[in-house]
Amino acid sequence: MQVLQQIIAGLEDGSVFSLIGLAIVVIMKSTDVPNFAIAQMGIMCAYLGWFLSADPGDGGVGWPFWLAIIIALLFAGVFGAATQFLLIRPLVGLSNRPLAYAAAAVMTYLSIDFMHREGLPTFLDWFPTPDGGWSWGAAVPLGILAGVLTLLAARAWVKPLAKVDHFPLLLLTIGMTWALLSGNQMLWGVQARAFDAPWDDKTPLKLTNPDGSVRLIIGADEVVAIGTGLAIAIAVGIFFKSKWGVRMRAIAEDGTTARLLGINSGRISLLAWAMGVAIGAIALILRTTSAVLDVSTANVIILKGFIAAVLGGFTSLLGTFAGGMVIGVGESLVGGQISTSVQAAVALMVVVVVLLVVPGGLTREKSAREV
Question: What share of the chain is helix, strand, coil (3-state, %, to 5)?
C-alpha cells in the first residue's frame, strides 16, 4: 500500500507538470513560440486568486473562493492575450541589433536590482560582498558593466542564431521570466502563504488495517488535481480537432499560406496565448492549494513542465500529458523508495532515456515539411 500511496501522490504532482507542459505545447502548436515565462505568469494569477479569497485579516479581500478563482483565470486569459499583442507580435521578425540592445538593457536592470538586494551571484562568492547587498553607488556601475558585456556578447553570438525562426521571441520569454520573478517578489513578497481551498482536509477514501493503522489515504486535493488535469487534457485535445484548433495549427505550420486562405492569424495567436496562460494558472493554483503559495514554486514547476513538453515532442498533447505523469510518479517513487536527494534528477534521467529510445518523444505526430 505504501507504493500505491506514493503513486497517487506522484499522479497529483504529475498532473501539475502535465498542465504546465500542455500550456507550453498549446502556445507552441499555435504560434511556434516556446513560452518559458508560463510558470511565472501562472504564479502571478495564483497570487491574485489568493489575494481575492484570503481573509482580510491575512491581507486579502475575503471574496468567495470560486469567485476569486474565476476572476484569476479571466485575468490569466487577458494577461496572455495582452502579452501576445503588446510584446510578442511587435517582435516578430526582429533583427539582431535591437535584440542585442534590449538584452543589454534588461541585463543592466536585473543586475542592478539583484546586486543591490543580494550582492554578487553565488559563483562569485570569492569576491568580498557586503552583507545585504551593494549600495546603489556600487550596484549601478556594476550593473552597467554587466549590460555592456551582454551587449558585446549578443552582437557577437546572436547574429547567427537570430536566423532561427522566433529566436528573438524565445529570448523574450526568458527575459520575461526574470522580470516577472522580480515583479512577483516586489508585489507579493517572499513569504510563503496558505492558499485555502474548499476541499482542504477532506478525505474521500481512507482504508485502515484491523488494528486501526492507516493503509491508504486519497485526499480531496489529489482527486481534484488528477481529475482537473485529465479533464483539461481531454478538453484541449478535443479543441485542437475543432475548426479553431485546426486554424491554430495551420498558423504555426505556415502562417503566410494560412493568411492567404483567410485565417486571421492575429486573432488565433491571441486565443492561443490566452488559453496557454489560463492553463498555466490552473496548474499553479492546483499546486499552491495543495502545498504553499510561494514565488519560487514556479522555478521548479517550469523545468518539469518543459521536460514534459520535450517528451511530447512539443506537438503531442497525449505525449506531454503522459510525460508529466511519468515524471511525477517517478519522482515520488524514487523519493519514497530510494532517497529524496536523488529525486530532483528523475526528470532529467527520464528525458534522456526516453529521447534515446524514442527520439521523437513518447508519441510522434506525422508531419510533412519542405526540405
Answer: 70, 5, 25
Beta bridge partners of 217: 206
157, 102 contact by CB (below 8 A): no
Q: Mean pLDDT for each consecutive 10-residue tract of the chain (371 residues)? A: 84 94 91 87 94 88 94 97 89 62 71 66 46 67 78 60 59 83 84 82 68 72 92 94 86 75 85 96 91 83 90 88 92 83 78 73 52 40
Joined grid coordinates for residue 248:
491554430
> 110 is written with which cell numbers?
536585473
Map out the domains of the chain as residue ranges.
2-94+162-357
pTM of the full predicted structure?
Answer: 0.79
Question: Hunting for cell 550593473 — which residue is that?
Answer: 143
Rounded distance between C-alpha atoms, residue 343 and residue 348, angstroms:
10
The helix/strand count (H/E) of the chain reads as: 13, 2
